[in-house]
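[job 4471] stage=fold_predict status=RUNNING
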Amino acid sequence: SDGHLRGYASYDDEAVAAIIEKHGADAPLQRLTEGGYIAFTVDQGQHAERYQGIVELSGATLAECTHAYFRNSEQLETGIKVAATRSSTDVWRAAALMVQRLAYAGGETIQPGFSEDEYDEGWRTAVILMSSCTASELLDETLIPESLLYRLFHETGVRVYPEQGVIAKCRCSTEKV
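[job 4471] inference complete, writing structure tokens
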């Protein structure tokens, strides 16, 4: 709620390079990680309990693992598209686009008057449109997020809320981890 984010990831450059040399740039996540888990900790503030969901890294991509998390821990239909690249100056850039299906609440939906069938069709359409987004679009430094959202979802309407920054707020240190 305050935009605080904490996370940690590391990798062995030489081991990753060897795997990519052997299996190509699209080596499955299982080859790169040799197993492991992905954990999401959600802290909704002082008036709610913090909770954590942990799932095995069982998909071929990080996006598939994230889908598994939302399916198993949150029981929320979620679509996610993830892209990352390393620039020629050795700087990493990553981006993600996520859509989540809200529960159908009769006439109290985002689009009042929609039947449940229309609501289901709207969800399928949103996932298809999100899936049409390319990695190059997600990683394009010149394409502002609002423009990308409009490009993808203009027919159904786009509402952009005020931007909220993300702040690195990990209590850990590299030594601790």
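[job 4471] summary: The two ends are 25 Å apart (CA to CA).
[job 4471] exit 0
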